[in-house]
Amino acid sequence: MAAETVLIQTYSRQPMPWGECVWPDRPRVCGGETEGYDAIFQVKAGLSAAVGAHVFCA
Fold it and tell me: What are 8-45's pLDDT values in tens digits?
């Protein structure tokens, strides 16, 4: 079975001319599924500046 590529997409609050909105950050390639879910745990626990995240496996 081939190794999976795991990406994490985080979202943060960004100032815009009309007010603050949630905007996607640059996607990041993770070393594996465990690293991706560790990163999402940090977001949910409030340990990062991100307000949301998705993990994608391909």
Answer: 999 999 888 888 998 898 888 988 888 888 888 998 89
Report field, pTM of the whole predicted structure over 0.85: no
Residue 25 and residue 52 in contact, taking contact as beta carbons nearer than 8 Å = no
Domain tally, the chain? 1
Best CA proximity match to 6, nearest among 41, 39, 32, 45: 32
- Domain boundaries, position 53: 6-57
Tokens of 28: 């990041």
- Whether 1 maps to a domain, the answer reads no
24: in domain: yes
CA atoms within 13 A on the CB side of 18: 2
* CA 51 from centre of chain: 9
